[in-house]
Design a protein that fits this description.
- The structure is a homohexamer of 271-residue chains.
- With 271 residues, the first copy, chain A, is mainly alpha-helical.
- The first copy, chain A, folds into two domains: 163 residues, Ferritin, core subunit, four-helix bundle (Ferritin, Up-down Bundle); 41 residues, no CATH class.
- In chain A, 45% of the residues lie in helices and 3% in strands.
- Chain A has a two-stranded parallel ribbon.
- Chain A is globular, with a radius of gyration of 25 Å.
- At the C-D interface, helix 4, helix 7, helix 8 and strand 2 of C face helix 4, helix 7, helix 8 and strand 2 of D.
- The structure holds calcium ion (CA) (6 copies).
- The site of one calcium ion has 5 residues of chain C, from loops.
């Protein structure tokens, strides 16, 4: 169960309206790697958690914080939309600068949301649950989380570069710092799990049942062998089980497929 | 540019038809973490790659292999659908066993695809490009790739447990082995990049501009302190810059939001 | 079965082309609360109607009118797109005013639709059937309809404010008037149903089977008690069964969840 | 900002596993009118709220409660999935009863989520933000909310009829009761707003600018006149401004559309 | 503008309920090539039509018929759902035959639609406007229409084979006949346009501006030359301008791509 | 299985950056009729092919070429994005020309993709597998393919008109030429199949089972009879079986639908 307090986790106070920037900021609210994604991903990982208690508690701690991040950005967007020039004064004499703002705005911010934030990304695409994963395997999921915090911090940093508004930058500097923490946090949790389980997900699958002759081979399927010089083609594998092998000319090992004709009632192409 | 050879990378020969399993197998073909996702993700990462040549070559090597994985699974599904009991012989006397098969099949396998594979997941949801990321930052993207190979191998292992068909298991054992390699590969590439760039994405953002007092704090937003005992709350942070700090009662640091009334032409709720 | 007449229900004649406005107008054609939504929602409610005949007839009357509204707006958009400056005359000397128009247009209006309307909203997101509901319970559905006509009229009014073209405003004034009628219509139908069925949907569920001690309690889950002063926390409930009660400090009434470890073949995190 | 407590708002304890029912229960978790929809709809309405303080507080009170409802149902689903028969013991001798369970389950519950809940509906379609609205006009939005609580209670009642498990029914009886309250709550809030603003959304649009001769006419666009006998065609309109009028044979009032040929560079059909 | 008559275009009377078949039948109602697709595709093509009047009239004739087809199938589905066994009588003694029906049904037919049709396909995926095209070039669009009627008739024939209910088959026999006509109709319209415009869409693009040396070459990008024996590699091209040429070993004609490093503020991988 | 070579199939070298055009060019990369659609459509048609070998080989030849087309356009887009003005130098003095570029760009090109291509269309909508079809009936599918190449060439021609950059036009002239070939190719394959199978898909359905009295009738469902003068209403039908008939006043042939009341446990509107 949850409780709400009225104060934001950190200030969300723009120095001035900027409806074009409001459109861009939607990316980290409702985009693929926005705050709604981590919020919902962590909530479901926590609620589904079947592992020991410290994991569930930790995941729900951060999940609960992420709701507050969505709240901050939504609040910021609503204020950036104040004064958007969406009311047409008169036909004719149009100011190119105003027209450029109108062209750069998300029209739904005015028409649909009445100058409020929306749960969508920077091109207006709605947030979808397919952005998230809760697999029941924490090592897999913590890698998803580390990726999400990496893509997320990258996007916030790019947005930081795209404005000079000190109020917006102040809020972003907070989000960037929290993403620094959250990358550290998931790396720490991953390290802990890898030490007990091993590095390959899932660690519980009996490796005798995999086709082990191709478990450590880098296959060069494209012309040119620059790929031979990377860490992934040399030295011990990261799971500590073998050494990387470089296959210069990988060969097909399977059959030439030949499908049977379909039955008559399927009305495929007749033989 | 690409060339195709007719043989599959590895055998895809079921021992007998199984249209219900064909539906399940769609998950690793066209699902969120299926082969189509890694194929398209790696292709776009390779084509967009602005880093040194060995990365582009390596990414396109694996991308090209993934197209062959999609091909193998599609071929397997088409054969598993042979003999699906979709032709209604007569109204009335229905065999519960046959009805259970019909209930467990994807009806589109017959109606839409004429007993062929489809680019969808195990509930028939179509593959979407929002499953993929190519951010221009390789460390971020390699974490996405490591996650994809972790979720992917987990799903293939689960599917391995859900059948006893030796032909299907043979193909899955190959895919599981390649996922072992690919997890190792991305871990190796990540290690290489972290050593030169540092562990926090993006490494090029000036850390002075982030709100550093919250960069290393674990915040306990949920009741109970089990989360205090994890690696994420104790010892040096993984980026080597500080020590984790545990905040027992995190406090709001921001304003109580109060939005201005909207302008008249927006026709929001009147004040 | 349906018949078509060539004349529009009302004039759709813009005074001059305006391709940027054409993009915005798509919202009320193919948006969440656009005319396609009410058209399809009412058609399915009518076709599925199991209640007495006057409801089916009424619903199909308005459904049929809505097809004509889609037609009017599509016709308007095609004309607003006449003369869109999408042909690049020469590299170099670009007019900022023209560029602003190009930036503000939907590029698909030219590339995909050849200066025609599309069944999408103002950010180009395609109309989807998940915008609609036909539940088989008319009181529930008429509330959906009243909401749709309320959101719809709000959006048309906002679009009215965003243009000064007298031809466009003339058509919008017709749509606004019809939405006035349709809000009245659904309120009237709701009033009729509530009088015979009661106000709570579904009225046929035996209220003894609901946890009645929380059926009339407003729970204050957020800090601060401004919410105490509203009608929803004072006086008789709207279904006439009780009085509103205000719970200042709502408490958890449920268990602390503890999930069992998953079975081995699921390959979740090992205990 | 938010805080989490570990106890659920109400018990979520099934009497026994039922993976087929788990699939169905997803509808009220991640469906069009599930708890995720009201949770996100109310959160955004609260964050965007520009009206007086009691509304914002009230909306966030209920939004915060809804997060707890999502939590309860997710917890219930995870438990219903315990013991799902997804591990294939041996090829051949299949039990029709077990096969029927497998056919009726959502395969992703095992393959993707490892026996956990997912943020999707009962056919596996992912939750999308287009299910929600926050328009900036509270009367419009409260009608959306009343509709959501009506559709939602209807669906929970139907799910109540589809099980006899006393633990599941106990939880549903709580949710049904809260939906009774929430329907009452939104009706109360609507009543309050209608009394000050009038019944037509938006109330601030100058009615002189709408085409008033069609503002109160019911138009009979389908054969047969059963629709004449409803409240929507007789007596005073619900906004108190006029009387309903019934138009037996509505006529087209607009032009016969004739579009100009497209410009040459569009490569439409040549004239 | 449109009018509705109450009689269906053709009888839709099942001989008995069949909720599993109702799920399958959704494919031709709300699927990619279902009746909603042709209805909306033809309506938009008609409304956007800038060509001579006989085309617009013809397109709207068939569009209007398609609304009636949607109506017939929706009516059929609602009747097939009568008597669906969705009410759980008692826990425990489950009949495998009934369970198979429940497993094969779409759960939303009961939970969401109250035993009515829904605007979705046979796996419950909602109809989306991206299924349709109205390009402004009639030859292109008539090819889309011919494809839609071909895929559509194929699916209806498959559904015909999947039932033995004489009432359902009677309705399908009508739809199959209309699809015969509609394939003929679009072929006739295509023939007419090809005779005046030529066969390549768009016919108005100056062929001097295309890279003509590759305009008639079949390129053998896959191992093996079975493809050499088809009509597409031999004889005159269908546009009558040249002869097909078979390129046994197509060579890359382009550059080896090398992208510039990104600017610093993009925070891509550092060089 | 596939191999990659580093050279592009044809040059993709813009003369100068143009981030606004990059957004538009996305349409033919990840749009409904972009290169990703034909690539995936042909791959699945080839993999699922149950017909004689020359078809499978031919389909996979062209499928493999299409991957190279996606590669060329992705490479072009990445270069067009070089130098995009997304870094905000200072608040205040904004250049309208630069602002127009920013308004016309896709913000995700910078925020999400770091100046790289994305698998989306020109409004940022992600590519989805529902754009493709592989039905198992080659005549049906080749009509889908002819349509795709027709819509595709039309869109490329429109994009050709929207730029004057000689490098971009050079690449487009290659794609236009290949689409000329591919339209010819599918027309040739269709001609071959129609000669052996007949023109109506599927040709294997016994025509006695269709309602033959409406198999060749054009029905005039809209007012006005301009549609009478087309080829579709006069002369022999294209399948050579009959003559077209024109029905001036098509009549309803079906029942007036009357649905039974729903069962009590569905909680629909009470009778
Ligand atoms: Ca290579
Ligand atoms: Ca805690
Ligand atoms: Ca409160
Ligand atoms: Ca009527
Ligand atoms: Ca070949
Ligand atoms: Ca006509």
């Amino acid at each position: 169960m949850f409780y709400h307090v009225k104060e934001l986790q950190y200030d969300a106070k723009p120095s001035q309206p900027d409806p074009v920037y409001a459109k861009k900021l939607q990316e980290i609210l409702g985009g693929q790697y926005g705050e709604m994604s981590v919020m919902m991903q962590y909530l479901f990982q926590g609620w589904n958690c079947r592992a020991e208690g410290k994991y569930r508690d930790m995941i729900l701690d951060i999940a609960t914080e992420e709701i507050a991040h969505v709240e901050m950005i939504a609040t910021m967007i609503a204020q950036l939309l104040d004064g958007a020039p969406v009311h047409d004064q008169e036909q004719g004499a149009k100011d190119p600068a105003v027209e450029a703002v109108l062209g750069g705005m998300n029209p739904q911010h005015a028409i649909v949301n009445g100058l409020g934030a929306q749960p969508n990304d920077s091109v207006g695409y709605p947030w979808t649950a397919r952005y998230t994963i809760a697999s029941g395997n924490l090592l897999a999921d913590f890698r998803a989380n580390l990726n999400a915090e990496s893509q997320g911090r990258l996007q916030v940093c790019r947005l930081y570069e795209m404005t000079t508004d000190p109020g917006v930058r102040d809020m972003l500097s907070f989000l960037i710092a929290r993403d620094t923490m959250h990358q550290n946090q998931w790396m720490a949790a991953i390290e802990e799990l890898e030490q007990t389980q091993g590095a390959i997900v899932p660690s519980t699958f009996n490796q005798e049942f995999e086709k082990q002759e191709v478990s450590y081979s880098f296959m060069n399927f494209s012309e040119g062998e620059e790929s031979k010089t990377g860490r992934w083609a040399n030295g011990p594998t990261l799971d500590g089980q073998a050494n990387f092998e470089y296959i210069q000319n990988p060969k097909a090992m399977g059959q030439k497929p030949q499908l049977q004709p379909g039955p008559k009632f399927i009305h495929g192409t007749p033989p």
